[in-house]
Amino acid sequence: MDSLIHIPVLQKEVLKYLDPKPDENFIDCTTGEGNHTFAILEKNGPEGKVLGIEWDPEIFKNTKYRIQNTKYRKRIILVCENFINLSEIVRQYNFRAVQGILFDLGMSSWHLKESKRGFSFLQNEPLDMRYNWKNPLTAEKIVNYWSVQEIEKILKEYGEEKFAKRIAEEIVKTRRIKPIQSTFHLVEIIRKSVPGNYERGRIHPATRTFQALRIAVNDELNNLEKTLTQTLKILRRRGRLVIISFHSLEDRIVKNFLKNQTKEELLQILTKKPIRPSQEEIKVNPRSRSAKLRAAIKI
After folding, report:
1. 139 partner at 20 to 30 Å CA-CA among 49, 220, 244, 278?
2. Complete domains list, the chain, with CATH
3. Are strands 25-28 and 98-104 parallel, antiparallel or unpaired?
4. pLDDT tens-digit profile of 262-281?
């Protein structure tokens, strides 16, 4: 798995806005392969700790192994959990005096290229799309059992797909003949449903459908919304919140949350406009191009 280490997005900016100082404690709600976590641990020694949360058991296992071989191992608590349970995790580990909380909502390259769970439309894999197997819902269940209206709704809402109705109808028509079990079968259905010129667009015609299914399977937007409200009770005064999002739906949730808490005089926004990656960073890591960082400080 180490063959595809996730390149951390906007790392300099994360450190600028989190501003970790010696002996301060931080939470990384999306630890992944641990790169942002390690960067924080570089700055908050000798006593500062990081509570790292990772929902995917395979990534968790690999990161735990990496950490055991570093000088940071005594200063990190790594938990395999969904960040929706943030308050409970903090209570369970008695993790106090939290100076900053980070969310990097990007998918890791490993999910797309090596997980074999159907996240990518470029590889023929089973339609799973779960980050954790405790979750009973899969993409295969959605395309084979949900109603045409339910499928259309998630494609519209979570994928902002303008051909949602056509794709949903084609999915339902196809599954009557044969269950839809692989990514390539689904891609074929999508291609059939959209106009030919859509094929020549800037993005692959399956992009929005795959995004919508992944969000629905993992309940990503609801989880984010519910977790953001928990951060306020956990952060100490003058503590910082930094969030990197990768599509307009996530960014809208983050932006509205920060705006509402500013009105309530609970937060002060540090980023008037979202911070975007530089051209140099996009060259090195093309997947960073859609990243937006927003930050705030607790009043």
Report:
1. 244
2. 2-110+220-298 (3.40.50.150), 114-218 (1.10.150.170)
3. parallel
4. 999 999 999 999 999 999 99
Structure-block tokens of residue 112 = 């797309």
- Torsion angle, alpha carbons of 219, 248, 292, 194, to 10: 100
CB 152 within 8 A of CB 139: no
CA distance 91 to 3: 35
Pairing of strands 235-245, 98-104: parallel
How far does Cα 297 stand from its chain's mean position?
A: 22
Q: What is the pLDDT of residues 126-167, one digit of tens each?
A: 999 999 999 999 999 999 999 999 999 999 999 999 999 999
Residue 285 has what pLDDT? 86
Bridge partner list, 77: 51
pLDDT value, residue 199: 67
